[in-house]
Design a protein that fits this description.
11 helices, 338 residues, 8-stranded mixed beta sheet
Length: 338
C-alpha cells in the first residue's frame, strides 16, 4: 500500500455561545497515492470540517482537539502556520463548493491564477501566465490566453469551477480535495466536471477526496466511499460493495432517496425521517437511533464501533457486531418485537 494521507481519531470542535459543537468526533481513514475516495452524508455531518481540519483552515471558533493527520509521512498538525502555507495550494489543493466566493470579483483571472504559481513555484510573471493559460487549456476552456484577461463574472458557473480546478492543479498537487464541486451546476455541467476530474486524476496521478451529499456523484468517480453521520464515519467500503450491499440503515436511506431512471417499477422516493442530532448534546448510543426504524435496545445506550464485515467493508451498527445481543428491535414508535 502506497499511503499518501492517514487520518487517525480526528476530533474537531467549534466553540459557540451555546456550547461546544463536536463537528468531527473520532474520524479515521486513509488515502493511497493515485486513489479517489468519496465522503458522503447530509449537510452538517462533518464532511467539510474533516477536509478543513486536514488543510488546517478552520475559523477562529474551530479547534482540532486531538488526533493525527499524516500526509506523505509528515505530521500536518505539528506544522507551524508558515509551514502549512507551503503545503496548501502546493502539495494539497482544495476546490470549494461555490467558485464565486473563492475568486476575487475585482481581479482578472490571470492575476489570480499566476499569483499561486509565483508564490509556490517561484515563477516570473510571464512564466506564471503561460502556465495558467496551459492549465485553462487542460481543463477545456477555449481561447485561454484571452480568458486570462477577463473577470470572474464573465465566466459561466461551470467555467468558473473549471478555473478553480485549473488553479488547484497548477502546482501539480499530490492531493486534490473537491468539496461539493458540482452542487451549484446543472446536471450536464456536473457530468463534464466529473469527467474532467476523472481524466486529470488518471493523467496526473493526483489523489482525490470528493466530498458530496450525493451518492450518485461518487459512483463513477471513487473507488471507496466513507459515509458520515453526525461527525462520525458509520460505514466505509469499496463503492461496489456499499452500493450493492449497504449495511447501515442510514446508508439504506441515502441510497433509497436517489431517483433511478432505469428503475423497472415506479416506486416513491423514501426520505430519511427526522433531523440530524444536536452535536452539542448528541443522543446516547448510536447517533442515528432516533431516526432508525431498525434499532436494537443496545443502540439506545451504547455507541457501536466500526466492525469489519467483509473485504475492506466496515460498518458501525450493532446488527452486524459479533458481540451484539439477540435481535430485539425498538422501532421509532417504541414498539418491540423479537
Amino acid at each position: 500500500m502506497d499511503l499518501l494521507l492517514e487520518v487517525k481519531d480526528l476530533r474537531t470542535s467549534f466553540f459557540t455561545y451555546a456550547g461546544e459543537v463536536r463537528a468531527v468526533d473520532g474520524v479515521s481513514f486513509h488515502l493511497e497515492k493515485g486513489e479517489a475516495i468519496g465522503i458522503v452524508g447530509e449537510s452538517g455531518c462533518g464532511k467539510s470540517v474533516t477536509a478543513l481540519s486536514v488543510m488546517r483552515l478552520l475559523s477562529d471558533t474551530g479547534k482540532i482537539m486531538s488526533g493525527a493527520v499524516t500526509f506523505d509521512g509528515e505530521d500536518m498538525l505539528g506544522k507551524t502556520e508558515e509551514e502549512m502555507e507551503h503545503v496548501r495550494g502546493n502539495k494539497i489543493s482544495m476546490v470549494f463548493q461555490d467558485p464565486m466566493t473563492s475568486l476575487n470579483p475585482v481581479l482578472r483571472i490571470g492575476l489570480q491564477m499566476s499569483e499561486v504559481l509565483r508564490l509556490h513555484q517561484g515563477m516570473t510573471r510571464k512564466q506564471a501566465l503561460a502556465k495558467a493559460a496551459e492549465m485553462l487549456d487542460l481543463v477545456g476552456i477555449p481561447n485561454p490566453r484571452q480568458r486570462l484577461a477577463q473577470y470572474p463574472h464573465q465566466f459561466s458557473g461551470g467555467m468558473r469551477q473549471r478555473v478553480m480546478i485549473a488553479t488547484a492543479l497548477s502546482c501539480n498537487p499530490q492531493l486534490l480535495i473537491a468539496d461539493e464541486p458540482t452542487t451549484a451546476l446543472d446536471v450536464t455541467v456536473q457530468a463534464q466536471i466529473l469527467d474532467l476530474m476523472r481524466g486529470l486524476k488518471d493523467r496526473l496521478r493526483t489523489s482525490i477526496i470528493l466530498i458530496t451529499h450525493d451518492l450518485g456523484v461518487v459512483a463513477g468517480m471513487a473507488s471507496r466511499v466513507l459515509v458520515m453521520y453526525a461527525g462520525k464515519i458509520i460505514e466505509e467500503g469499496p463503492v461496489k460493495s456499499i452500493y450493492s450491499r449497504p449495511k447501515h440503515p442510514y446508508t439504506w436511506g441515502l441510497l433509497g432517496s436517489i431517483p433511478r431512471l432505469n428503475a423497472k417499477d415506479k416506486r416513491r422516493l423514501v426520505p430519511i425521517h427526522g433531523q440530524p442530532p444536536d452535536l452539542i448534546e448528541p443522543p446516547p448510543g448510536c447517533r442515528f437511533n432516533p431516526r432508525c426504524g431498525h434499532a436494537l435496545r443496545i443502540c439506545l445506550s451504547q455507541e457501536p464501533p466500526l466492525n469489519e464485515i467483509g473485504s475492506a467493508h466496515q460498518v458501525a451498527c450493532w446488527r452486524y457486531h459479533p458481540q451484539a445481543p439477540p435481535l430485539v428491535l425498538e422501532t421509532q414508535e417504541g414498539r418491540s418485537a423479537s
